[in-house]
Every structure is written in C-alpha cells, then in structure tokens.
Amino acid sequence: MKFTLSWLKEHLDTNADAATVAEALTRVGLEVEGVEDPGARLADFRIARVLAAAPHPQADKLQVLSVDTGDGQPLQVVCGAPNARAGLVGVLGLPGATVLANGMVLKVSAIRGVESNGMMCSTRELELGDDHEGIIELPADAPVGTRYADYAGLDDPVFDVAITPNRQDCMGVRGIARDLAAAGLGTLRPLEQVYRCGIDPVAGEGDGPAVRTDDVEGCPAFYGQEVRGVSNGAAPEWMTRRLRAVGQKPISALVDITNFVMLDLGRPLHVYDKAKLKGGLVARKARDGEQVLALNGKTYALTPAMTVIADEAQVHDIGGIMGGEDSGVSETTTDIVIECAYFDPQHIARTGQALGLTSDARQRFERGVDPAFLETGLAIATRLVLDHCGGTASGITRSGEPPLGRHEVAYDPALAERLAGVTIAGDRQRAILESLGFTVTDGTPWTVAAPSWRRDIDGAPDIVEEVVRIEGLDAVPSVALPRADGVARPTASPEQLIERRLRRPAAARGPNEAVAWGFLSPPEAGASGGGEGTLENPISSDLAVMRPSLLPGLLSAVARNAARGAGSLRVCGGAMASGVRATGKPAAPRGGMQDGDIWISNDAYD
What is the dihedral of CA 67, 69, 73, 78, to 10 degrees? Predict the structure, then answer.
C-alpha cells in the first residue's frame, strides 16, 4: 500500500514529518518497507527561462538557446522541441542529471558541432505524463533557478507499507490514518471535511439503472447509479499527481476517480459505458463456455464457480477482480453506470487463484471490504463524477443485502496483562478501542463490538492485540523463558543421535548432502514407478507429481553438477542425507556398495 505524506494529511490532522510517521507506523504494527523522496530524482532539474533562440547552423530542426538558470550566467543549450522560443519558461536538466524516462546522464557535449550544456525537458522525459510533443511550458512568473520538484510539489515523501492479510481496513489511506490517530499522532478528520463535495447519497432524477444480483453467495449486494451527459476528459491535477506518485498511470477522469476512491478509502468501484451495454446488469454465476476479454487485454475462460457481471448479451466483468474491455469507458463516453458491490472474500480468492489473475480490487475484496460502506462509497464516487465530469445523476438501485452483522466479543481488560505482559489501565484500553471504531459496553466482562471494517476480529485475544499495538509494541517487556534448576536434560531423540554420529564419517569420506525437491515431472516420476496423479496446484509443470523415490532427485543432482564440469561427485540424500543406509547400517564402507544403499557417485571409493 503506497501513499504520500500530503495525502495522509488529508485524513490526519498532524504536523508530523515523514520520519515521525514512519516510526509511528512501525510502532503500531504496520511494516514500512520504504520511504521514497521523489524530489531527489529531480534534484538537478531547474526552472529556466529561454532568453534567445537561434537556428542551429548545421541542423534545420534544432535551435541554439540561451537559457537563464537564475545564477546570472546564461547557458547555451541545443534543443529540438518545436515550441522552444524566446521568453518560454521551462525545465532544464543540468549536466550530471539523469533523464528519468531513459536513464541517460546529461553532460556537456557537442551536438552537430555546437556545445550544449544540458537539456530542456518534456513531461514524458521526467515521467510526469505522456506528452512529448514539446518541452514543458510553465507560467511566466515561475521562479527561475528554483528546483522544479519544489515548485511543482513533487517533493512529497511516498510511503510503501506492507499490509498483512488480516488488516483489510488499512488497504486505504483513511484506515492507516485512523491507526495513527489512535496512536496519538494526530486527529482523524471527519470524512465530510475530507470530501468537501459531500458524502450523502445523490438523490438524482428518475429511476436508477437496471442492476441486480442473482448470486447472493458470491455477490450479496449490488448497488448502481447512472450519470448521464458526462465529459470524460482529464482528471484534476491534484488527483493525477497523487495517483502518479503511488505508481498509478492516470487514464481519464472516470477511471481515475474510481482508482482514487479505491486507494483513498479501500472501496473498489467500476464504471461501465452504458452505450456498450445491452439491457441491465446482473451479478450471476458464469456459464460453461463463457469468456471475457478483460481490461488487461487477455481473454479468460470462466467456470460456473465464478461470479461475473453480465448484461443480456455477454459477460462484462470478472466480479470484484477486473472489468471487461467491451464495456470500458473512453473519451467518447457520455452515459455511465457506476457499480458499487460487495463480493464474498472466499469467492474472490478462489476465482483469482483459478484464473491466475490479480488486481488492486482483488487484493481488497479477498481481504474483505467494509460491507457498511456501499452507500457512502457510491455517493462519493457519484459526486466526484458530477464535480469533474458534469452530467446528471439518476436514482440509486440497491439489490441484495450486504452482510452487516456486528461481531461482539466478551472482553476482560485484565487479559492484556495476562497475555501480553503489559499493564494498561481500563480507561486507556477503552479510549484506544473507541478511537479504532470499536463500541465498548460496560459489564463484567465488557462487551466489545467490532466495527464493520474489521472482519478479522474473532475473539478476546484479538482485542488484546489491538490495545497492545496502539499502546506500542515496544512496551511489551522482553522476558526470558523459565529454566528448570540443574543440568538440562538431552533433547535429541535416539534417531537424531544416530544421524549425528553417522553424518560425520559420511562427510569425512567426501560425499555431499543432496536435498532435492519432493516433486518431479510426470515423465521422471513414471520412470521410477510413480506419476499416477498430479498435484492440484503445482509450483510448475516440471514439479507436478510427488516423488515415488529418492533416486530421480539424486540422479538429477549428479547430472547437473557433471554438466558444470565437476569431476568427482559423491552425493547422498533422503535416508542417506546423514550417511544412513535404508537398512540403518553405516553407509558405503570402503570396499563397495551394500544392498539397500541409496548412494550416487561417479567417482570410485578407492
């Protein structure tokens, strides 16, 4: 899960810097894999003004520019951009800078006999967009000499946080902000303050779109709203900047809005071009022989175990995993249907595994998104579309019921000390739980109700974990395990002791232990008496059968080493990995092999 510091601060009212945030994330159990400063990659790119532009004496399509970099000494730069002209303010890469798009290191060089001291850059060359028709044009009052990263706000630290499968609530920026607020790093802003466009459902005009769910197991709830008369241009700059900072490629306003809501709130959505649909949309089981061309350009064969979204003619969506190419929005889209559905985590996991298909949506749905957030998630997406794409909203169609049952746990506050060894006052525990969205009811013991976004809470030990991690995992004392008085008794079994005694003489005679895969290819297994059945989920086609014998693995090790020029090979494996023969007697004594030995060598013992 990636996000920028400024993005986090949209939800978290705090003055903490990147280092403080990273330390707090680690303290509450969210592993920080890295913090990147994107501005460092653009450190050698400055805002510069073109003072003069003259034709290159040896090339018709090149110009020789005199460029002001703010230090009082103009630089000469050769440029081939068609929009290069006197008075233009752009971005200059100085000698020593690395062009992000191709890794080229700039240096002072002669271009067609004319010295050039850098390069005026396009958006694509700085990996800030796809425009390569000309160099970047900045406002005339842009401060010449300033680092471009500082001017453009590209110095925003990017956090990369590893989210464990049980923390589905932290697959959105808001969930991470909630944890940090509970840990005392700041205050969680109300969602209404974050989304100034509003979070209440849009009543709209007329009936809602024709959507329904016929697969209440795979898709218990399917909400939809139509927006007519949209203009699908570029998303606002603040949105594309955030998406690009976390590795998402901006596509169009409609697509970017759904991606933004998914990353910001952990709520995947999908948008259909209504003009490409034939009839209403239904969530149902796939039928034998059905296929779908997904947005990644690949065609997938579906099975009746998979949940899909289809119209009267075809499948348009692998439910909760990836949309279809045939109903995707484009720059010509005018009417859309916004899908906001709840998909069962187990169904999503099995479908994704069967198809070998992963996506940002799958990562969230198979962990379990907030079932109580369909209404608000659809409202936010619709309002963003209306604000940035225009149009008129319809009414809302709600089909099915999301699983909203509250999970309650009986909890004794004293359990925190018994399980974790940390003494935390009852009032402090209550405050922590309530800041995380739990509801605490007094009694002996307490009754703690988990919020709708925490489906991982199962029992009292889970409550202890929440309290302790917010209090700080570093508060858990390090305590040695108790040790009985007197001399410790041996822990090795008789079989282990035999193995140790025989491993040494085997190693002294020169053999090398071979630990081979427990799996083989079907031909190898068949040659050694096996191969009747294959594994359901093999690592690869060459490792699809359980080995019936140790021999193929040992022979493979010998062949592999011989092919690499090894002249003397002595390997043993399995029962002989410790020098033990299948008979349990000492292995390969000097003088030759004995019945039952599992020993491979291409070198004489003598």
Answer: -30
Residue 74: phi and psi, rounded to 5, are -60, 145
Mean pLDDT across the chain, nearest whole number? 88
Residue 358 CB partners (closer than 8 Å, separation 6+): 352
CA atoms within 13 A of residue 179's CA, in its CB half-sphere? 29
Tokens of 244: 């690009």
State the pLDDT at residue 597: 39
Q: Is 425 helix (H, G, I), strand (E, B) or coil?
A: coil
Contact 512, 570 (CB under 8 A): yes
Q: Is residue 175 within 8 Å of residue 16, measured between CB atoms?
A: no
- Reported in sequence order, the residue ranges of 401-495 that DSSP labels E, i.e. its strands, are 408-411, 439-441, 446-449
Give 467-507 pLDDT, tens digit per residue. Answer: 999 998 888 888 888 877 877 777 888 888 998 888 888 88
What is the C-alpha to C-alpha distance for residues 175 and 172, in angstroms, rounded to an integer? Answer: 6
Q: Which amino acid is at 92?
A: L
Beta-bridge partner residues of 195: none
Residues 587, 504: contact at Cβ < 8 Å? Answer: no
- What are the pLDDT digits (tens) for 309-344? 999 999 999 999 999 999 999 999 999 999 999 999
Q: Which residues pair with 308 in a beta bridge?
A: 284, 318
Q: How many CB atoms lie within 10 A of CB 101?
A: 15
Check: CB of residue 381 under 8 Å from CB of residue 387.
no
- Tokens (6 digits) for 46: 């400055």
Q: Which residues of the chain have pLDDT under 50?
A: 574-606
Give the chain's end-to-end CA distance (angstroms, integer): 61
**Which residue matches tokens 């005679």?**
509
What does the H/E/C string look like for 506-547?
HHHCCCEECCCCCEECHHHHHHCCCCCCCCCCCCCHHHCEEC
The answer to whether residues 455 and 461 touch, using CB atoms and an 8 Å cutoff, is: no
DSSP reduced 3-state for 244? helix
- pTM for this predicted structure: 0.76
SS percent in the chain: helix, strand, coil, step 5 = 30, 25, 45
pLDDT of residue 517: 82
